[in-house]
Design goal:
The structure is a single chain. The chain has 348 residues and is an alpha+beta fold. It has 12 helices and 10 strands. The chain has 2 domains: 5-97; 115-347, Bira Bifunctional Protein, Domain 2 (BirA Bifunctional Protein, domain 2), CATH 3.30.930. Helix content is 41%, strand content 19%. The longest helix has 38 residues, at 60-97. The termini are far apart. The chain binds zinc ion (ZN). Residues 269, 271-272, 275-276, 278-279, 283 line the site of zinc ion (ZN).
Length: 348
């Protein structure tokens, strides 16, 4: 063995430095970086080994053996350290992702249907077995669908009564669901029975009015249609909705341009016998408007009013919801206050 002591010590120092660096690596990535730096082709250790070929031939085996031992030891040390770091990172991961099964789950609020949706669905459920199908129409209507075809004369004050939101000269945000009657008559053939629920818009806002609210419109057309059928249908519907077999429905004469004769209909107060605050001591509660389809409406859509008759009725959904759920202010429906809406979640 004739390795110069000085060079041997230098290499052994390098060996210790590399071991110490490996030892200081805090993770596998860092350890690998050290390996590349200290054992790679351009590292001082590799360069020193390459010089063996410049040594006298008889000295080379001893140098070779020496370097092999150094590299072998570093390899072992590296693998041992790598295993150690890998275990450490696994332990940290397990610790971080550990679940405490005794902890309560995250609090989540279950969603529930809006009371307005509930009322609309209840109404649809009553009418569907009677053969009514559901129709919808656009929120932005032309003046013709919203007024003219429903027999509102031009410049007639009844157009102003509805506090219309105009969009340009000839379009409006629909003020009622009645335009769906016209669209239905244009697209379907009699006999027909349709129900049209949806949002409507009027420039009005207070405790009992909202600029956006919901109506439901019913239309039935056949060869012979009578007021008695209209009253029977409304009576059947309202008895089921309020779950009151003794409920009475009454008609009061009224005026709507698109029905003739026209009536407003009331129900006997489902909350009292002799008058209460809901019915304002009258024992009757106003629900909506109705009537037989005006011959002029048939004429606007090219239907022969001598062959066909029909009845139509409409009502405000919020008004019904206020009665059904005893809610004091219509605006509560649209404020999205979770405390208010939560009260309906138990209804399924
Ligand atoms: Zn009452």
């Amino acid at each position: 063995m004739s390795i110069p002591q000085k060079e041997k010590e230098r290499i052994e120092n390098l060996f210790e430095q590399i071991k110490s660096s490996f030892n200081q690596a805090e993770n596998e990535k860092k350890l690998y970086d050290f390996k590349v730096k200290f054992l790679g082709k351009k590292s001082p250790l590799s360069i020193a080994r390459k010089k063996i070929k410049d040594y006298p031939i008889e000295k080379r085996p001893a140098w070779g053996e020496f370097f092999n031992k150094i590299f072998e030891d570093l390899d072992h040390f590296y693998l041992k350290k790598q295993k150690e770091l890998s275990q450490k990172s696994l332990d940290q991961k397990i610790e971080k992702e550990a679940m405490d099964l005794s902890l309560p789950g995250p609090y989540c609020i279950a969603g529930a249907k809006h009371p307005i949706t509930r009322v609309i669905e209840s109404i649809i459920k009553i009418f569907t077995p009677l053969g009514y199908s559901i129709q919808t129409g656009p929120y932005v209507e032309s003046d013709w669908y919203n007024f003219s075809a429903l027999n509102f004369p031009p410049f007639h004050p009844s157009r102003d009564l509805q506090d219309t939101f105009y969009i340009g000269e000839n379009h409006v945000l629909r003020t009622h669901t009645s335009p769906v009657q016209i669209r239905t008559l244009q697209s379907q053939k009699a006999p027909l029975a349709v129900l049209a629920p949806g949002a409507v818009f009027r420039a009005d806002s207070d405790v009992s009015h909202s600029p956006m609210f919901h109506q439901i419109e019913g239309l039935y057309v056949n060869k012979k249609v009578s007021l008695a059928e209209l009253k029977g249908t409304l009576s059947y519907f309202l008895k089921h909705l309020f779950q009151s077999s003794k409920m009475k429905v009454r008609f009061r004469p009224s005026f709507f341009p698109f029905t003739e004769p026209s009536a407003e209909y009331d129900i006997s107060c489902p909350f009292c016998f002799k008058g209460c605050s809901v019915c304002k001591k009258s024992t009757w509660i106003e629900i909506g408007g109705c009537g037989l389809v005006h011959p002029e409406v048939f004429r606007f859509v090219d239907w022969d009013s001598t062959k066909w008759q029909g009845f139509a009725f409409g009502l405000g959904i919020e008004r019904l919801a206020i009665l059904l759920f005893n809610i004091p202010d219509i605006r509560l429906f649209f404020e999205n206050d979770i405390r208010f809406l939560n009260q309906f979640s138990s209804l399924g």
